[in-house]
Amino acid sequence: MGISAKLIEECKRKLVLAKGELLNRVKEARANLVDEDKGGDEADQTVRVLAEAEFLNMQDRLRSQLMEIESALSRIEGGSFGLCEETEEPIEADRLLAIPWTRLSIEGAEIRESMNKRYAR
Predict the structure, then answer these.
(1) Could you identify which of 58, 97, 101, 113 might form a hypothetical disulfide with 72, taking C-beta atoms 3.0 to 4.6 angstroms apart as the criterion?
(2) CATH number for the domain harbouring residue 105
(3) pLDDT tens digit sequence for 39-75
(4) Which residue blocks in the chain are alpha helix, DSSP H?
């Protein structure tokens, strides 16, 4: 049982939308950071440093998610979209619709999580 073309198209549409939203968030956050005044007293400068650190953390998360989205779009093009990297079985349709960039089925995620716990000790 493979993944239907209709499901793949819906996931691709969601991935492209999510990619656009992420890129807009990055652009908006960067514009907000650049607009801030560089003067001020020590408290203002501390707040600005904290805001910059938060911005960098957010950028890191967005970059990571963007890479996952790009990878999913690449898997669509390559024909391997919707297959669990752990079990090599099709990922559940509901899961793909909720998280179209996912690489793991629920079972695969559980396997990976138990492996991570086992080796984290």
Answers:
(1) 101
(2) 1.20.120.910
(3) 678 887 888 888 888 888 988 999 999 999 999 999 9
(4) 5-35, 42-78, 93-98, 106-120
**If we measure between CA atoms, which residue out of 2, 3, 18 comes closest to residue 71?**
18
Q: What domain count does the chain have?
A: 1
Provide DSSP, 40-55: --HHHHHHHHHHHHHH
Helix (H, G, I), strand (E, B) or coil at 99: coil
Please write the tens of the pLDDT for every residue from 27-44.
887 777 666 556 678 887
Contacts of 73 (CB under 8 A, 6+ apart): 12, 15, 16, 19
The amino acid that residue 31 corresponds to is A
- CA dihedral (46, 50, 53, 59) positive or negative: negative
Quick one: which of 84, 88, 87 has its CA closest to 103? Answer: 84
Residue range of the domain that includes 115: 5-120
